[in-house]
Design a protein that fits this description.
Length: 390
């Protein structure tokens, strides 16, 4: 859990009537559909269901790995095999393992500015130094990456890796452009920098698979890159099931590490549920419904922002995921505005917790459109607009 409780957790004192544009969580109504309940009941009645309640394969449920191999190869034009994938306990598990096995205390991790607050928390827990890389509406700025690399070389610092959320970024909703992604991949390769690609929102592209961007993993042909995916955003975060893609030898390092060997595979029973749900075709149909649902909520949020916000407020225009990033007018402090908004019945996340240097986010707030119902979204934005216009 993050110590910055206002980012992903319900704020203390929030009443039942508070509109939450704070939580980067899936819509609660999508979490336990009848077809998922049926899958769980069927699994429990079968021998493999009972087997899944034991310790599992350290690499993860083989049936789920086979599904992911086919999915990733189809979507990304790759030819990976089962040895390139490990099932993990959500992206948190993957990020923590990478920080533990591929960085040493005092190493530098390059992160976007802003970045996901709980990943920053994990890196700090491991004693890693964070350096922020500025973004704009096209994503991370390649020239800033070059500038930071040059500075760190002059300081004699070791870069462990660069952590990026390139698709429907949390917190900004921005997607890194193809041109910039290729530039960044070349810069990383030329300087021997590993890229950790946290791509957990990728499946929530409003335009579907046809519009999905190329991954860093595909661009770099699997060399010096890890890619992370998750079912938390598209099925249920409580299942704690995700995946990590890398070179076979590097995946073997994770499989053979102490915590994996001691605990067995990540969440074997939950992973088997997900495997059966995916193999039946139900997950694919479910994701299509989610894309439509979240696209409508995003469009409703953007329309309300256009209608109710003063011209001095600026915001991003995501094409997938859960988030929109607002820059408040001069004179407003996001932390103070968050308190005022909550007093008027709307919960939002202030920007400070998403930055290496909190002051960089003092005029920013994140709106999550995934959790609240459509009428609440419009009403919430109307309230926020009124507070900023008054």
């Amino acid at each position: 859990m993050s110590t910055n409780i206002d980012v992903e957790s319900a704020p203390q004192g929030t009443g039942a009537n508070t509109i939450s544009l704070l939580l980067g969580h899936p819509d609660p109504s999508t979490l336990m559909k009848p077809d998922l309940q049926t899958t769980i009941q069927q699994l429990l009645s079968q021998p493999q269901g009972l087997k899944a309640l034991q310790y599992g394969s350290e690499q993860g449920a083989p049936t789920l790995i086979r599904f992911l191999v086919e999915k990733i190869n189809r979507e990304q034009g790759l030819a990976i095999g089962a040895a390139n994938i490990m099932i993990v306990g959500g992206s948190t598990h993957a990020v923590d393992m990478i920080a533990r096995l591929y960085a040493n205390e005092g190493d530098v991790v390059l992160v976007e500015a802003p970045s996901y607050t709980d990943s920053l928390h994990i890196f700090r827990d491991h004693g890693l130094e964070l350096r922020g890389l500025p973004m704009d509406e096209q994503g991370l700025i390649p020239a800033e990456l070059v500038r930071q690399i040059t500075r760190l070389k002059a300081e004699g610092k070791r870069i462990a890796f660069m952590y990026t959320i390139p698709t429907f970024h949390n917190p900004t909703g921005v997607t890194l452009t193809e041109e910039r992604k290729r530039m960044i991949a070349r810069i990383a390769q030329a300087n021997g920098i590993r890229i950790v690609e946290d791509d957990v929102y990728r499946d929530l592209a409003f335009d579907g698979e046809a519009m999905l961007p190329t991954t860093f993993y595909a661009l770099m042909q699997g060399e010096n890159v890890f890619s992370i995916g998750s079912f938390s955003k598209t099925l249920a975060p409580g299942l704690r099931v995700g995946w990590l893609v890398g070179k076979a030898g590097e995946i073997e390092n994770f499989v053979n590490c102490g915590t994996t060997q001691m605990g067995g595979g990540a969440n074997p029973f939950a992973a088997q549920i997900v495997a059966e749900y995916c193999r039946s075709g139900q997950w694919t149909a479910h994701v299509e419904q989610l894309r439509s649902l979240y696209q409508r909520r995003c469009e409703t949020t953007l329309a309300a922002l256009k209608h109710y916000m003063p011209s001095t407020v600026h915001w991003t225009h995501p094409t997938g995921g859960f988030f929109i990033w607002l820059t408040l007018p001069q004179g407003f402090v996001a932390a103070d505005f968050k308190k005022t908004a909550l007093a008027h019945g709307v919960a939002v996340a202030s920007g400070a917790g998403f930055f290496v240097h909190p002051d960089d986010g003092k005029r920013c707030i994140r709106l999550a459109f995934s959790f609240a119902a459509l009428p609440d979204i419009e009403r919430g934005v109307q309230i926020l607009g009124g507070l900023l216009s008054g």
